[in-house]
Amino acid sequence: MTRKIKIFDTTLRDGEQSPGASMNTEEKLVITRELLRLKVDVIEAGFPISSPGDFESVRRISELVGDQAVVCALTRAIDKDIDVAADALKYAKRPRIHTGLGVSPSHLRDKLRITEEECIERTIHCVSYAKQYVDDVEFYAEDAGRSDYDFLVRVIQAAVDAGATVVNIPDTTGYSLPWEFGSRIAYLRDNVDGIENVDISVHCHNDLGMATALALSGVVNGATQVECTINGLGERAGNTAMEEVVMAIRMHGEELDAHTDIDSREFVKASKLVSSITGMNVQANKAIVGANAFAHSSGIHQDGVLKERSTYEIIDPADVGAGASQIVLTARSGHAALKHRLEELGFAFDEERLDELYAAFLELADKKKEVYDEDLESLVNEQDRTADALYTLDSLQVSCGYPLTPTATVGLRDREGAVATVCDFGTGPIDAAFKAIDKIVQVKSDLSEFAVMAVTRGIDALGEVTVRITAADGTVFIGRGADGDIIVSAAKAYLNALNRLLSNSR
Ligand code: KIV
Ligand code: ZN
Questions:
Q1: Whose CA is nearest to atom 5 of ligand 1?
Q2: In CATH, which of 3.20.20.10, 3.30.70.100, 3.40.50.150, 3.20.20.70 is domain 3-278?
Q3: In the chain, what percentage of residues exceed pLDDT 70?
Q4: To bridge 223 with a disulfide, which of 218, 237, 261, 404 should be the other Cys (CB 3.0-4.6 Å)?
Q5: Distance between CA atoms of residues 323 and 289, nearest Å
């Protein structure tokens, strides 16, 4: 059995410190329920002295969580902070006070303005003071990542001797290199007496984009708890992302001699929830939970994934609640990807028809960033509509605007391949195009209905037009047409209805 690594979630505390990410109590309770579904070991619920709202959140979260997880409240190494945190944690079944102070030369000299000896005294005092209220006291050595190794040993020794149950070694500024941070943890492990009886926690920031690597390096060197947030939310560049560190441990459990108890199938749901509550969007290429994390766009990758998913995916998307791998159809997609998607949509075509569709698909994909299922269905339908048509649209050019007279030049190809081109004008570009079509087709009908709708999302969506025309004998014919340009869609739809009328009257 590998070592259990406890997951300490600080989305509601450090995560909330992201500029613009503040949450109200009700929102924090919603996130807490999700953290419980994820099965986190510790929930850092807030910093009670900081505001009445934070106090209330910690109190309500304590009630909600019961004995399902440890509920932790942050304090500075100040008695009043600790008194208020203890009060907020009053209803917690498994309360923890998280107290501490800065230990780096910069924090001692420029922020706290205390000596090293004073820092040691305050360490002993804050841990002992918190111990009056709760058994479980976590001590944080802020900015440990930039501290002197031997001074850090003295501080952590003092915290352990004073009764800390967890010692938190933060790389507060995200300054360290992963291997150096790992050596620091190993140094503490080898030089602090009794450290084997407490949890060593790592709390890393992402200022150099290495928060996950730093946390893992801590785990390799003896850390038994990782502090992290959903989506890597947190002060400045954020904290270690829970989904990243947990999945890295899952992938490399044997090597790291580590496992967590997290239910990773909740990750995508948790990510969406936190992003919708905080308004902090997740970048599409974010590891594990980004919209593109399991999307394959290049033809070579698509071909590999369709043959065997693991050629380009190290994680099964279902394991993180991401549904299935996505084959994104773009201009770089190959024949195999198009065929696969068409089959998924229930279409089975011979190679000749597939070639025709692939050519039409590439033409569309050059105009649109992404070709969706609905676009493909339209493409197939459009080809079906024109397969036996008497007339097909060969060209269309319109000019319109204010104060121009709308005119359209339309070229129609008949079954023999001859193209007739005429020009007409109308009340608008569609009217002008329809009149030009009438001039060539020369059949009498009344347009009784015209409707346009976007087939897919986005500004580059295909527009599908439906028209209804009534022939001289009262028979109604429906026509449909789809294109990225709705005037072209309209002309195709009108022509589709006229073709039906013509074949009916033969
Ligand atoms: O980054 C940090 O050092 C912190 C401490 C308060 C744990 O968030
Ligand atoms: Zn932090």
A1: 142
A2: 3.20.20.70
A3: 100
A4: 218
A5: 11
Mutate to test the pocket of ligand 1, among 76, 146, 172, 200 (most ligand atoms within 8 A of CB): 172
Domain locations along the chain: 3-278, 294-322, 325-371, 387-505
Which ligand is nearest the CA of 234, by number?
2
What is the bridge-based pairing of β-strands 445-454 and 463-471?
antiparallel
Fold classification of 387-505 is Double Stranded RNA Binding Domain (3.30.160)
460, pLDDT greater than 90: no
Choose one of 142, 152, 239 to mutate for the ligand 1 pocket test, by most ligand atoms within 8 angstroms of C-beta: 142
- DSSP string of 191-208? HSTTGGGSEEEEEEB-TT
**Phi and psi angles of residue 228, each rounded to the nearest 5 degrees, phi first:** -160, 175
Q: Given the CA of residue 17, which atom of ligand 1 is nearest to it? A: 8
The pLDDT tens digits of the residues spanning 257-290 come to 999 999 999 999 999 999 989 989 899 999 999 9
Residues with CB under 6 A from ligand 1: 14, 140, 142, 168, 170, 172, 203, 205
- Give the mean pLDDT of 94-101: 98
Task: Give the pLDDT band (50/70/90) at residue 20.
Answer: confident
Q: Give the residue, by CA position, lying nearest to ligand 1 atom 7.
A: 140
Residue 455 has pLDDT above 80, yes or no: no
Residues with Cβ within 8 Å of 366's Cβ and at least 6 positions away in sequence, in order, are 331
Split at pLDDT 50, 70, 90, the class of 453 is confident
Model pTM above 0.85: no
Nearest CA to ligand 1 atom 8: 14
Residue from 140, 175, 201 to probe ligand 1 pocket by mutation (most atoms less than 8 Å from CB): 140
- Distance (Å, whole) CA 352 – CA 359: 11
pLDDT at 458: 73
Ligand 2 centre distance from Cα of residue 344 (Å): 46
How distant, in Å, are the alpha carbons of 34, 221, 269, 321 from that of 272?
11, 33, 5, 11
CA angle (472 as vertex; 434, 466 as ends), nearest 5 = 40
- Residue nearest to ligand 1 atom 1, measured at CA: 172
Span 353-380, average pLDDT: 89
Q: Report whether pLDDT(506) > 80.
A: no
pLDDT at 368 over 70: yes
